[in-house]
Amino acid sequence: MSDMVERTLTALPGLFLQNQLGGPAASRAPFFSRLGGLIRGVTALSSKHEEEKLIQQELSSLKATVSAPTTTLKMMKECMVRLIYCEMLGYDASFGYIHAIKLAQQGNLLEKRVGYLAVSLFLHESHELLLLLVNTVVKDLQSTNLVEVCMALTVVSQIFPREMIPAVLPLIEEKLQHSKEIIRRKAVLALYKFYLIAPNQVQHIHTKFRKALCDRDVGVMAASLHIYLRMIKENSSGYKDLTESFVTILKQVVGGKLPVEFSYHSVPAPWLQIQLLRILGLLGKDDERTSELMYDVLDESLRRAELNHNVTYAILFECVHTIYSIYPKSELLEKAAKCIGKFVLSPKINLKYLGLKALTYVIQQDPSLALQHQITIIECLDHPDPIIKRETLELLYRITNAQNVVVIVQKMLEYLHQSKEEYIIINLVGKIAELAEKYAPDNVWFIQTMNAVFSVGGDVMHPDILSNFLRLLAEGFDDETEDQQLRLYAVQSYLTLLDMENTFYPQRFLQVMSWVLGEYSYLLDRESPEAVMTRLYKLLRSDSISSETKAWLFAAVTKLTPQAHSSPIVENLIQEFTVSLNTCLRQHAFELKHLHENEELMKSLLQSAQNCDDIMADASLSFLDGFVAEGLSQGAAPYKPRHQRQEEQLSQEKVLNFEPYGLSFSSSGFTGRQSPAGVSLGSDISGNSAETGLKEAGSLKMDGIKKLWGKEGYLPKKESGAADKLEAAHAPAESAMMENVDQAMTRKDQAQGHTPSTEEKEKQLLASSLFVGLGPENTINLLGKADVVSYKFRRKSKPKVAQSDKMPSAHAAPSSTLSPVSDVAGGDEDSLSAADRGDGELGSELLGSESVLELPSVENLSSVSLPVSSLFAGNDMEVFHPPSSSATSAVKEVSLAALLEETPECRRSALVEICSNETVAVSSYKVWKDECLLLVCSVTSKTDSEFTDAQLEIFPLENFKIIEQPGCPSPVMEAESTKSFQYGVQMESPCVEGTLSGFIKYQMMDTHPVQLEFSMNLSLLDFIRPLKISTEDFGKLWLSFANDVKQNIKISEPRVALASVLTELQQKLRLCVVDVIGSEGLLACKLLPSTPCILHCRVHADVVALWFRSSSSVLSDCLSCHCQKVMQTS
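Structure tokens predicted for AP-4 complex subunit epsilon (1130 residues):
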């Protein structure tokens, strides 16, 4: 609504002025009297009811006017302005939407302008009426009138959805070459909007973005920075070559070379400076060579940005952020630290907030900065401004370690008790819970802290906190004694809390209490189960307890019933709740009644946690295999998933084509995607026909869990190996660094002839507690980086059975050195057979039959939501995969049998020259090995004289990792000789394509060193290898992967055979055909070293339906992009 108000109020004065200048007074009177009278009437009202009555009368009048056939375009324009005002106040004026579109299609410039303004305010991107605006926008984009073109470009960049982009994209590309700078600027901004909502549709015009960056008009160049900032955030390595251009632009801006109209309060183009600084910070991150190019301009920016206006502070803040983001330089860091000190010590609240914000960021690179401003930080904890307080707590959260966690959490809890904002409570309780689990000094402190979190956080906190606390109690640690002590103290504390009179607890806290008491009350020596049941029964009868919490309480009483079978509470519960109106509670009551009547069954099902084996679930429902097989033998139809049924239905019916344009297919963006409900592979996986598309972050992941139910029923648990013991938590040590800081502060006070007051002594004492562990002798846990302090409450280590010697892992013994190029290029049979075995071993490793996941010994765990995503998730958690099976489905089709044969071969690319001069030439080629991509660079001397110290280096940029570098530089390179350098490259994070840059450095006799730079383009396909797995393994992988991408690709040849499609995918994308089942094909591949991706392919008429699933969502997107290119060019 704020954006609507701003745009409307900005446009209204211009409309008034133009109307004032465009006609006689008689024609202007109705407009001003009606609109002005309406505004005065609304502002004079004293109640919302009166306002609603007045606006409804106005809307009724407007509806009659716009619907009348005698209404002229001028009157329609005036009605649109009044409709905008009514809509701005929050009232529905949908009857005028179609008339706004009509007004934009006809009339003079002013009327079209009002129509476009109304459309942009009334409609959103998914509104159905937008389709009626496409022809109008296309016509105006082709107009020779600059105003009409500008209006069309503006509305395109505001409300056009991705489905309508192909209709206007060619016209907007033409506008990049327009003679008027305002047209070029608006065209760039429209393309920026397209890049945000559909990046795949504008990939082909990246070269035109570079032309916009070099445009002669500053406004066009500034508009292009929006696109580059976004693209560099996603892939900074692909734009390293533009660093000098950005540095040059920033130098011109800082030097005041831009026109005066771009200055703001004598500050040259401040927003342009901020964008350039952000871009440089992304380009220079972890890159020394690139950072060296920007050191001078950053120093100049710090020097010229004098503290004389608010916008200057923003520039300094971004400059400090950039300096600490790029490769560090000591001189710049010192200047940035001084700048932060000016912010933090400033009496102005805004500057102090900026200082704390900057300090929170840079503290990860330089923890000593917190020591320099510790007294100021202590004062900020008691600052009257809540924003300053909150940012100070965020800073303390960043520097928390095992030595200061108690004091910092205490400060957070104090602020939490004072806060009333829901967002702050949600954010802060999550951080407190994370710190409590990570650095808790003992069990008592941990339970008390979590009790405070549950009490204050209440029902607004994230459910993950509750679920993971229960999981932590259930799974325990490696020390069984410590597990029992933690659970016993939790039970005792909850009983104490329940005994308190007139105390209200949030519903989720009561749910935690009921679950813990139901599971671990047997640990009590002095309390009987009847006493615990009495407290729970009292809560069950309370009217303030929700139905959901009562279900938790009922489950807890049910668990305690075997220990107190003769208790009258059980009879009272059954009698009272079997007639309850609540269906859930009535169901619980009848279950308890049947169990109570069969004591032997109840004791076998409701065992206490000390006697209960870990409860496992059969995720594949294999115990139903007999039922499914019997049904199929009697003629029952096999299950077909929903998407397959829809495709068959579409093939039988004539339906409308909802694809907007022929070249527009489903986008492969990273957001807004949902997993399908299920999949049927047409194989023998009969137990997987239920819907399995569970949200990864919303429920307990059951894939790969040890089977406890089989065809014969319950399977007894086998003895598992003992878990490894966790080392005892280290005791906090005294920090000598803080003692030195305190002594230095004392000497400073004595030198000034000042005796510290009691308040100052308290601040120094608090500082010594908060900032302990930040000295050079201590380690600091920087959240967001690798943890150097082990978790206090670490998940129990699950026992694992070693793999058989007959099935070695593909990663068990990685080769330490890369094989020579001659062996690879020549296709040595031994190496190829080993590579062939590697793919199969990867499938075995992914689906290891011996790796099982044990759940905590918890009864009735289905009533507790335990999502996978966790605030407490640590790096020590292990991931298990579904069990393996060696069965492979046979392919009956003779025409497709050749695709399933193993064709291992190691290929290489052609030799390509990447840089040269009159002295040397550097060429390279790729060798696609099974474990990595091998880049072979050959340096050839072209002169008759020799040179020394020939060194070739490639930089490990973002997304890529150099796993092997050549040795020392060649001391002497003879004339007209060639030397080879080999580099092993792996892709760390999937991307469609990327660039590696490097240089060749050498020295001729009696001359200065010479350096040549070069770059090499790499594609995702360079790192894709076939993955050979069985059909059953494919099915289990399919169920275990939650990241999926669907894409329908239209091909040029209708009725193309499935065999030709699979051949294209196998040969051009290096995919392995796993199986062909009817009209469906199954393929698999892996991204080196071991990220699998599987593909389901189906051909229908002239459309190929591809369905990707992988453990990486980015890999599925990137691979689908390459598939689209291959299928459309074949």
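The domain at 912-1019 is CATH 2.60.40.1230 (Immunoglobulin-like).
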